[in-house]
Design goal:
This protein is an alpha+beta fold. Helices cover 35% and strands 13% of the residues. A three-stranded mixed beta sheet has the order 8-1-9. A two-stranded antiparallel sheet has the order 2-3. A two-stranded antiparallel ribbon has the order 4-5. The structure holds iron/sulfur cluster (SF4) (2 copies).
Length: 263
């Protein structure tokens, strides 16, 4: 059986259980997630926060530990994988120290830090240029600090990609629904996206709405800490007060909300 037929049957099966057609199911999932995305900041427990993340690189003991974190995110969000690097779509991935913190490297620094793969993702910046340049408001910032993306309003102009200094936004040059990996682990609870729009990390807004942690945090074995930095009693705030942390390219004024402990 072809891969595309298998994925169709999976969705059709889920739809039959729910008593609706495949297209209707996908539409319903998308609608309900977008309603969650747009309303939780007004109605739910996520109002007026400043959500942020600390990545403690010292807690990762192997490259495999880091890979597990990225895989958890990509699996749960149906992030397509294409072999051709020009078609790559990524929500969370790794970069060298030099690319993560340009200008911070020097020739005497510890070799293990120089060689280590650093986890990077959208920084959910306080002053996000991606939001400022978006002509359709498809990219928007919620009151809790999450920088969201609405694929329905996205016209694929890529202004946000050009504006983001962290390369955190991917463009769907290929149809994500035809990616090989999605045939294997499609998650029917999260919508797949269309060709011709952009996508990026959304801090697992859909899981937060259910009281869950972001998938990457859950898979990180304590290396990733997530929470409200405006709450002085939060674990993340205590961590920031006791450990030395750095952020990516702070000189650009985007005010990234991802902090790194280097070890
Ligand atoms: S990292 Fe890039 S995509 Fe994410 S909020 Fe900042 S500017 Fe926008
Ligand atoms: S590609 Fe989409 S999200 Fe990015 S600026 Fe254009 S409309 Fe906005």
């Amino acid at each position: 059986m072809s891969m595309s037929r298998r994925i169709f049957l999976k969705l059709a099966g889920a739809s039959a259980i729910a008593g609706i057609g495949g297209a209707a199911l996908a539409g319903e999932v998308q609608k309900s997630l977008l309603e969650t995305a747009q309303t939780t900041s007004r109605a739910g427990a996520l109002t007026e926060k400043k959500l942020a993340m600390v990545i403690d690189m010292d807690k990762f003991k192997s490259v495999e530990d880091i890979r597990k974190v990225a895989d958890a995110c990509h699996r749960i969000h149906n992030v397509p994988h294409f072999e051709n690097p020009k078609h790559e779509v990524k929500w969370i991935w790794t970069e060298t120290f030099e690319h993560t913190f340009p200008g911070q490297e020097h020739k005497f620094m510890p070799e293990d830090i120089k060689q280590k793969p650093f986890l990077v993702l959208c920084n959910h910046c306080q002053n996000p240029t991606c939001v400022r340049v978006c002509p359709t408001k498809a990219m928007f910032k919620r009151k809790d600090g999450i920088v969201m993306h609405d694929p329905h309003r996205c016209i694929g102009c890529k202004y946000c990609m050009a504006a983001c200094p962290y390369g955190a936004i991917s463009y769907n040059l290929n149809n994500p629904r035809l990616a090989e990996n999605l045939q294997e682990y499609v998650n029917p609870e999260f919508p797949t996206r269309a060709i011709g729009v952009v996508e990026k990390c959304t801090f697992c807004f859909e899981r937060l709405a259910k009281g869950l942690k972001p998938a990457c945090v859950e898979a990180s074995n304590g290396a990733l800490v997530f929470g409200d930095v405006d709450d002085p009693a939060s674990q993340i705030r205590k961590l920031l007060a006791t450990k030395y942390t750095i952020r990516r390219k702070p000189e650009l004024g985007e005010e990234p909300n991802i902090y790194y402990i280097l070890g």
